[in-house]
Design brief:
The chain has 577 residues and is an alpha+beta fold. The chain has 20 helices and 22 strands. The chain has a domain of 267 residues: ATPase, nucleotide binding domain (Nucleotidyltransferase, domain 5, 2-Layer Sandwich), CATH 3.30.420.40. Helix 16 packs across helix 17. The longest helix has 32 residues. It is globular and about 65 Å long. The termini are far apart. It holds the Pfam family FGGY_C.
């Protein structure tokens, strides 16, 4: 007998969000005030071999089931109380056959490895080739596809793994596959198809509104594009392999959970399941309507269009919405209804942020020493580094912590530049190294990395505002947003206040909102966001003009690091010609 049966609670409405990130599957349960009742996570397997990064859909589903069961137990929530479920996941590419079994996408031939992970860069050449066609659809992804999008990855499989290519019955984004696995309904999300597959969501613009939501026949595929790039076979059977029907995020799928999926998850068959979101976009849905005290004075004004959400985890996604479509070179979008229905989405991003900070720390000689000290003090490595920096600033004559890196500058493009220069070949730069291998030197390197990431965000915000956005407020969620130094440096460098959500698990909340909408607890996704988003702390930029002057100078150097790289590239190309 479960604890929930021993202590029966009056029936309440609970919404379940599932988020599959790069390293784990997580589940969270929220009440009708958007308050987190309990969450749990379960690790997932990943295979890395150079540019090839792969996962297993079977392994992921087992992890999802384990996380959901553990979260329900921890939160003391019974299956009857769960009124809706939503899935969010990385924009990784899943391959299954006609039976729904995995088809390998790996050189190894290992059939478990049927997912090309979002950050996999095997298809850089295919992306370049696709972009050389200058198809009209490319103007809706910043002028060109990234190797992290699905068409280049599909082309890579067709050219390199012919047997797998012929066996695949469905190609799906991971979040769509999760909702398909749960319901048996393979309707795709406007979020995944528009953001990662070049689907033109605005083909549905005059057809309907979100409130009259239903499965829509997929009329936004550009068949000429697929034929031109060499993937014309995906057009066959009304695009059966890549998506015959699409729906707004939160639209109810099939008849809810199938009996078999419900049994695996420990939930009731028929529980409503909402059309999914990419994980970063779920973060946007989980925070974008969070109102600070000053916002509540202007409650009738549409504040959404002056905000940018930073979803900062392994990578950072920069999400902004507008009523008008804005074409911004080097920034993905404009995507219609890909996050908030009936708004155009602009999506900037940095491919390695949390991953880069970890890389800088873990590859430093002082790292093991630091990790042991953090463990013995029962604090995180980040907390320890933040304390070292405070002590350093007090011991030296530097007027503020940020000035400790006055002779160290970092270009954070260690995994290319996603936006706004959209150069997957860009490389990271560390300027100002010495023979020092102390913990103090690692702390400075860590600070300079955070600053480099924040200068990259400033570049994205300035670029978007120069092309029609009016962003004056940031919202931040994800693992990195829990680091006060990361947030304060971003506020100081970008020059905007940053609203943090009341609930730290914003991606899970965004996913749960999909379930709330599918279960008809709210009339629309936007209504659910207004009801369930809530602001926590607001971090303001420093009012010290010296800090602003310092960051303006460092930002100028930051911008020059990429310009120098381009110059060096052309010098070497000429020398090798």
């Amino acid at each position: 007998m479960t604890t929930a049966e021993l202590n029966p609670l009056p029936s309440r409405s609970v919404f379940l969000g599932v988020d599959v990130g790069t390293g784990s599957a997580r589940a969270g349960l929220f009440d009708e005030n958007g308050k987190l009742l309990g969450s749990s996570s379960s690790p997932i397997q990943i295979w890395k071999d150079g540019d090839c990064i792969e996962q297993s859909s079977t392994d992921i589903w087992h992890a999802v089931c384990a996380a959901v069961r553990a979260a329900c137990s921890l939160a003391n929530v019974s299956e009857v109380e769960v009124k809706g479920i939503g899935f969010a996941a990385t924009c990784s590419l899943v391959a299954v056959d006609a039976e729904g079994s995995p088809v390998t996408v790996s050189w190894s031939g290992d059939s478990r490895r049927n997912i090309i992970v979002w950050m996999d860069h095997r298809a850089v050449k295919q992306a370049e080739r696709i972009n050389s066609f200058n198809s009209p659809v490319l103007q809706y992804c910043g002028g060109g596809v990234s190797p992290e999008m699905e068409p280049p990855k599909l082309l890579w499989v067709k050219e390199n793994l012919k047997e797998s290519w012929s066996m695949v019955y469905k190609w799906m984004d991971l979040s769509d596959w999760l909702s398909y696995r749960a319901t048996g309904d393979d309707t795709r999300s406007l979020c995944t198809t528009v953001c990662k597959w070049t689907y033109l969501g605005h083909a549905h613009m005059h057809q309907m509104s979100e409130k009259a939501s239903r499965d829509m026949e997929a009329c936004g595929w550009d068949d000429e594009f697929w034929e031109e790039i060499g993937l014309g076979d995906l057009v066959d059977g009304h695009h059966a392999k890549i998506g015959r029907s699409v729906a707004f995020p939160g639209h109810p799928l099939g008849n809810g959970l199938t009996a078999s999926a419900a049994k695996e998850l420990g939930l009731l068959a028929g529980t409503p399941v909402g059309t999914s979101l990419i994980d970063a976009h779920a973060g946007g849905v989980g925070v974008m309507e969070s109102k600070s005290d000053s916002d509540s004075l202007t409650k009738d004004v549409d504040t959404l269009c002056s905000r940018m959400v930073l979803v900062c985890g392994t990578s950072t996604c920069h999400m902004a919405v507008s009523r008008e479509k804005l074409f911004i070179p080097g920034v993905w979008g404009p995507f219609w209804s890909a996050m908030v229905p009936e708004y155009w989405l602009t999506e900037g991003g940095q491919s390695a942020t949390g991953a880069l900070i970890d890389h800088i720390i873990e590859n430093h000689v002082a790292s093991p020493r630091l990790a042991n000290r953090a463990a013995s003090q029962k604090v995180s490595v980040f907390e320890l580094l933040n304390n070292i920096l405070k002590t350093l600033a007090e011991e030296t004559s530097f007027p503020f912590i940020a000035a400790l890196t006055s002779d160290m500058h970092i270009l954070p493009d260690f995994h290319g530049n996603r936006s706004p220069v959209a150069d997957p070949n860009s490389k990271g730069v560390i300027f100002g190294m010495t023979l020092d291998t102390s913990e103090k030197q690692l702390a400075l390197l860590y600070l300079a990395t955070i600053q480099g990431i924040a200068y990259g965000t400033r570049h994205i915000v300035e670029h978007c505002n120069a092309h029609g956005h009016k962003i004056d407020t940031l919202l931040a969620c994800g693992g990195l947003s829990k680091n006060p130094l990361f947030i304060q440096e971003h506020a100081n460098i970008v020059g905007c206040p940053i609203i943090l959500p009341r609930e730290s698990e914003s991606v899970l909340l965004g996913a749960a909102i999909l379930g709330a909408v599918a279960g008809k607890s709210y009339p629309s996704l936007h209504d659910a966001m207004k009801a369930l988003n809530a602001a926590g702390q607001v971090v303001h930029p420093s009012s010290d003009p010296k800090i602003k002057k310092y960051h303006d100078a460092k930002y100028h150097i930051f911008r020059s690091l990429y310009e120098q790289q381009l110059s060096h590239r052309s010098i070497i190309t000429e020398a090798l010609a």
